[in-house]
């Protein structure tokens, strides 16, 4: 999450950063309300103190036009749009597993699906 929030190469590739950050902030706040942690507090502070988010981010949640927010990435002329599924373990006997979150990204449209499948095909046919 931090790589998506802090200025850098990944954030620069996020085409819908403001609505994505607003959605992310809401998710982090909900998680923080259940299980407060310094790591989540730091992520909230990173988003809320970001100059771009301070200027426009509060309004960004209104720009989300889908019931499932997506992450739009673009680099070197390639674009992919993804939605995410965040999984937790509901009944665990290990405290470490109780805090584990598994995030899985799925293509949000047919063009993104085709692009990801082409990457998979290229990797499957490459030597080594």
Which properties best describe this structure?
128 residues, alpha+beta, three-stranded antiparallel β-sheet, 3 strands, 53% helix
Mean pLDDT: 87
The total tally of domains equals 1
Tally of alpha and pi helices: 7
Largest sheet: 3 strands, antiparallel
Shape estimate: globular
Strand content: 15-25%
Radius of gyration: 17 Å
Instruction: Give the N-terminus to C-terminus distance in angstroms.
Output: 31 Å
- Give the neighbour order of strands across the main sheet: 1-2-3
The arrangement of helices and strands along the chain is: HHHHHEEHEH
- Secondary structure class reads alpha+beta
Q: List the uncertain runs.
A: none
- What fraction, in percent, of the residue positions are helical? 40-55%
Number of strands: 3
